[in-house]
Known about the structure:
By secondary structure, the chain is α+β, with helices and mostly antiparallel strands.
Amino acid sequence: MRFLTLSKRRLLQNLSGWLLPICDLWLTIGKNMRILALDIGTSSIKAAVLDVSSGQPLGPITKIAYSLDYPTPDAAEVPADRLWGAIAKALHEAAQDAAGIEGLGSACMTPSLVLLDGADRPAAPIWTHLDRRSRPAAQKVWRDVGEEFLATTGNRPLPGGMSALCYRQQVATTHHCNTRCEATSTSTVGWD
């Protein structure tokens, strides 16, 4: 598994060269644009159709709650089908009477760990940022290279954020499926 780590500042510097012109174009053509906004949170999904120029909802703001599973005291996870069902229901309820949606904006709970099988289907429940199975690894990273880690990533090595980094060490004895790692985070991305 390889990891790409970028500081937030460096990531923004890299993006600003092409992101700012796109934002200017978006503001120019988006005067009467409608977007479907989606907020994938840790305990609920919120969705609404918004007018881009005013930011105001053009219909109902839907909120669909879902629960996390805690199979051990340190684990906090959600089955992918439960999360997907909540997302689909929130989108349907928010957009069912809306016409002319021209874009989708989303925010997603991060960091989260999604393990995929060979057919790109979820192979295990999604580990959320509330998961604390990597607490010992996070403590060790802070002891060994804490200040360097903080300077590089912009974050302390917190247990929820370390789940993707420490996946193989944490479950090597309990999971034996062929998986690929997809991690969402503000500063660390992992892949096979």
